[in-house]
Amino acid sequence: MNRSPLQWVPTGYFAMAMGYMMLTSVTSIMFKNLGMDNGRAAQYSSMLILAYTIKPLFAPVVEMYRTKKFFVLLTQLLLGLGFGAVALVMGMPGSMALMMPLFWIMSFIGATMDIASDGVYVTSLSSRNQSLYCGVQSLSWNIGPVVASGVLVYLSGRLHTDYGMDWLGAWRIVFVAVAIMLLVITAWHWRVMPDGARAADTPENLGQAASILRDAFKTFFEKRGVWTMVAFALLYRVSIGLLEKIGPFFMVDPVEKGGLGMSNELLGIVYGTYGLLAVLAGSLIGGWYVAKRGLKPVLFTLCCVLNIPIATFLLMAIYQPSSLWVIGLGVVVEKFSFGFGAVGFMIYLMQQLAPGKYTTTHYAFGTGLMGLCGMLTGMVSGHLQQSMGYVSYFWLVMVATVPSFIVTWYAPFHHEEARTAEEPGQLQRKAG
């Protein structure tokens, strides 16, 4: 029986986003609530990005065995059980030593789920239907961060403040809720998700997979101007990487420590909901702007829009406003600008870095470099902020925008520009 993509595309991409955001973003807030300092909280959560960064290396192996649906169901089941296991070990003696290996394993399971879910989407739908449903796909993915960073962070705060739970108890309930959601989605996909077809270029064995990967690396570094494009992929978002973990910490740290003294509830509303909706709005408008003008004449403008509004965090650190409206406006401005500017980055990777014999793989290399930047900057950001204080740290973030301007100015355009066929929202999902 043919199932409508509306029965499995929204839940599939929502599950992908939930897994990614819970592991790489929400965990940093949990670590901080449990008494971890900013340096370690940012470092530990950023380490979990590694699996998502290197997933192109093991994607061919995943494609070789069973059906794509099998891997979706298996990884969603294991991820749900993993979040349940985290809830069980929290509060045990030496619980952090148990949680971190669990999170590490779960990050590779989540990355594998991404590979399999994308595979079902690409091989089960015609090109026409892929375009038709990509708006649903991107919207569903963007609901995931709203639920994870908004609703669930808000819930943890309410449980702690209004119901008198300690932070361990509050976060235990949050992880149980995530586990239940993923297990319910797994059961639903078992009924409605198609198997997914075998891709034409799927390797037949491990030797062939290794040979294809070697050739993909070789041809990638033979591209004209490749090192400039690599620098662009690695450095375009370096300031965003330095801000990503520290922004929420700044919101919840007490005023006497240089923060804004917000509760988890307010963080969930302002940063996790309004901010993420602003990202989506910015990506849609940014995508329309690039489609109308073309990428080459506007890329530097997009870089300016991406980086300059980071100054709102510097101003908030200097003046420490107490008005929720002022704080919310600052977050919305910065997040909208991020969404607007990040679209150009993804289009550049598709149109200039990726074209060639292994377009999909080379595009994945580009997004992997982006993930590497986010992981490395996230790992050092907390330690730097602790040693410098918020005002000096946000000055550093502003200085870190300079490499982005340089690599954007010199970014080469060796391929004829084409208007992207993807929805702007889908680009933002890949950028996230």
UniProtKB/TrEMBL annotation:
Its main location: membrane. The chain crosses the membrane at residues 12-35, 41-58, 70-90, 102-127, 139-157, 169-188, 226-246, 266-291, 298-319, 325-350, 362-384, 390-411. It is found in: Membrane. It is a multi-pass membrane protein. Keywords: Membrane, Transmembrane, Transmembrane helix, Transport. The keyword Membrane applies. One of its GO terms (cellular component) is membrane. GO terms for molecular function: transmembrane transporter activity. The keyword Ribosomal protein does not apply. Residues 5-416 form the Major facilitator superfamily (MFS) profile domain. This is MFS transporter. It comes from Massilia eburnea.
